[in-house]
Specification:
By secondary structure, the chain is mostly helical. It contains 15 helices and no strands. The protein starts with a helix and ends with a helix.
Length: about 350
């Protein structure tokens, strides 16, 4: 039975490699566009760009996007470890298919975005994008009252755009040889289910203790999956070894693509979310209605903080220190986006408003 499954997967991989090779030849001149799409829909930007941006203009939707992003990235990491999915750029070198058939090894190109170090299935880009943007589209339609009108033109346009965007993300990942097509389809399918489930949770009812327990649960379940696989004689970090072995250029390999770095992000943002929402700073501004210019100021300040955070170089000599500092940084970022930024803008706005009234 195991041999049959292995042969079936080899057949899927082999045919998928042909698709990747054809895409790379056909769209080589458009490679810059695929790089851009893959970058924009990187799961980290759901935390560093989309969340602070939408939090600034719609606090309720921003909180929901952050929560769904946390759940989506956690489930993606656990599933990656469990499903043990290959990636095209290393599979072509590890498989014995081409030796058995006497076929020439496919000339699959690698790019600076290709060498992801985690397992390939399901696609994190596709899964997190499907989750986050499902919440965005559904919230938009709910606001305009079109959520239950399947024939509504706006509804059709929004869901069509959503589908096309996910198709573009999937194509970019396949073009880069970072994923096989079925891994992207699987990611999209699970991502939608995650959004539908996590999006129904009433975040206003959650307290700090719930976020602390959630952080502990996310961390322990991921480490538990890691430990179980180790006890079964498997190496959960096998994909990192493959990446190091087969990546064309070592500078393409980054620690921030490893499964454990993903864990520091979703656990850090989960704890920071709880600390931020339960802080006195957030309590001070939670009932305040910000004018449009104050919301814009929040967006500028939050995105500036996010951009500056990308310039922070964490020490890599000690891997435990690296992951510990990454976790702390993500806790701080989540807290800043939710509590510090709106409070700072509120205070500046209040001071300016008082000065203006005195002048008048």
């Amino acid at each position: 039975m195991e041999t049959v499954v292995s042969d079936a997967m080899d057949l899927v991989y082999e045919n998928s490699v042909s698709v990747i090779h054809s895409l790379q030849i056909r769209f080589q001149q458009q490679s810059g566009l695929f790089f851009l799409i893959s970058n924009v829909f990187d799961p980290r930007y759901a935390f560093l760009f989309l969340t602070p941006l939408i939090l600034s203009f719609d606090r309720s939707l921003g909180k929901k996007i952050l929560f769904v992003s946390i759940v989506a990235e956690w489930s993606n990491q656990v599933l990656k470890w469990m499903l043990h999915g290959e990636r095209p750029y290393w599979w072509i070198h590890e498989t014995g298919v081409y030796n058995r058939t006497g076929s020439r090894l496919p000339d699959i190109q690698q790019y600076f975005l290709t060498c992801e170090t985690g397992p390939g299935s399901p696609s994190g880009h596709a899964m997190c994008s499907a989750s986050v943007w499902y919440v965005v589209v559904e919230s938009l339609l709910r606001k305009v009252g079109a959520i239950n009108k399947n024939s509504n033109v706006l509804s059709s346009m929004c869901w069509s755009t959503y589908t096309l965007a996910l198709a573009a993300v999937s194509l970019s990942r396949v073009f880069l040889a970072a994923h096989f097509p079925h891994q992207c389809v699987l990611g999209i399918s699970i991502g939608v289910l995650v959004a539908m489930a996590a999006g129904k949770i009433d975040l206003d009812r959650l307290k700090l203790k719930h976020y602390v327990l959630m952080t502990i649960g996310l961390f322990s379940s991921a480490l538990g999956t890691y430990a179980v696989l180790k006890m079964m004689g498997m190496n959960p970090m096998w994909s990192v070894d493959r990446a190091v072995k087969w990546c064309a250029k070592q500078e393409y390999i980054h620690l921030d693509t490893t499964p454990f770095f993903s864990m520091t992000r979703y656990c850090g943002f989960a704890l920071g979310m709880g600390l931020g929402l339960s802080s006195p700073l957030f309590a001070r501004v939670s009932s305040v209605k910000f004018p449009p210019y104050a919301k814009a100021a929040c967006a500028v300040l939050a995105l500036s903080v996010a951009k500056l955070s990308e310039r922070i170089v964490l020490p890599k000599a000690n891997v435990y220190l690296f992951y510990g500092l990454a976790f702390a940084l993500n806790v701080v970022l989540s807290y800043v986006f939710l509590a510090v930024v709106p409070f700072v803008v509120f205070r500046c706005w209040s001071v300016l408003d008082r000065k203006t009234k005195k002048v008048l």
